[in-house]
Amino acid sequence: MQRQFQDTFLITLTPRQLPALQGWQATPALLAYRLGPGPHLFRADSSSLPRGGLMVVNDQGFDGLGQTGPLCQEILRECQARGFSGAVLDFESRLPPLEGIAGALDEAFARRGWALYVPERLGARAPHGRVMIPSALSGGSLQRRLEEALERFGESRVVLALEKAAEDFYLPAPDGRGQPLTPQELEGLMARLSPAVFFSGELCARYFTYMSRETGAHFVMFDDGDTLRRKVEVARGLGIHTFLAPWEEVGPCAAGLGIPRKPQAGRGR
Question: How many whole angstroms separate alpha carbon 32 and alpha carbon 55?
Fold first, then answer.
């Protein structure tokens, strides 16, 4: 008999957005913390933060200076005080101290039975942690990308980090980087061009092309609720059942992604 696996959805959102998640079976990951000078952990007004779920820590104010040991202790104390079951390290910079922070928290969290979610580049520094693999690609194959992650980190550690990406690439694009588009910019571009839109099964994304008199050929790739659903299906097919997603982007398509509703009181009697 084939074993059935249950998905785990970790939803990043602000404390003010929490009421919107109450009807769904998902774990809230609170966007309420950042690393700052000192270094120290900074957080939102404590009165607005509930207990439970995960804390998300970004590094936007981190300058790489100072001793990180006390900072790690601040993070541990905050998790204990708020009843968090783990933390998401949303580290975008490559300052060397961040590697040490990830390694120290990995050991401390593992001893306490807490979960730690780290960017792919820090996966080796946090051997007990879960590794977040971004769903957006500019080339290649999502399935192969995830297969390679599974080979490196193992099935139990890989998490698919969903993001509704949209980028405009000048062709040719040898570095694989495009100009990010806001939802409003993408909508405006499509309204102006009325392009023929196609679906890439390899990338699990939609795309169209257009010509500009000033900048030449363009390739625009973007996600919607359906492409995110297909990415989840690819991950499930490979044995990946943990997903990280921002509520701001996946809220309208939560049911389509397979996030279950909480049973309503009184039903089923």
Answer: 7
Spatial separation of the C-alpha atoms in residues 69 and 74, rounded to whole Å: 9
pLDDT tens, position by position, 131-160: 999 999 988 999 999 999 999 999 999 999
pLDDT in tens, 67-96: 999 999 999 999 999 999 999 999 999 999
Asked if 43 and 32 count as a contact pair (C-beta separation under 8 A), the reply is yes
Residue 1 confidence (pLDDT): 41
Backbone conformation region of residue 154, classed left if phi is above 0, alpha if psi is from -120 to 50, else beta:
left
CATH architecture of 166-222: Roll (3.10)
DSSP secondary structure letters along 183-221: HHHHHHHHHHH-PPPEEETTTTEEEEEEEETTTEEEEEE
CA–CA gap between residue 245 and residue 13 (Å, rounded) = 9
Domain boundaries, the chain: 8-164+224-257, 166-222
Q: Cα(118)–Cα(125) distance, rounded to whole angstroms?
A: 9
The CATH classification number of 8-164+224-257 equals 3.20.20.80
Residue 173 — φ and ψ, nearest 5°?
-125, 75
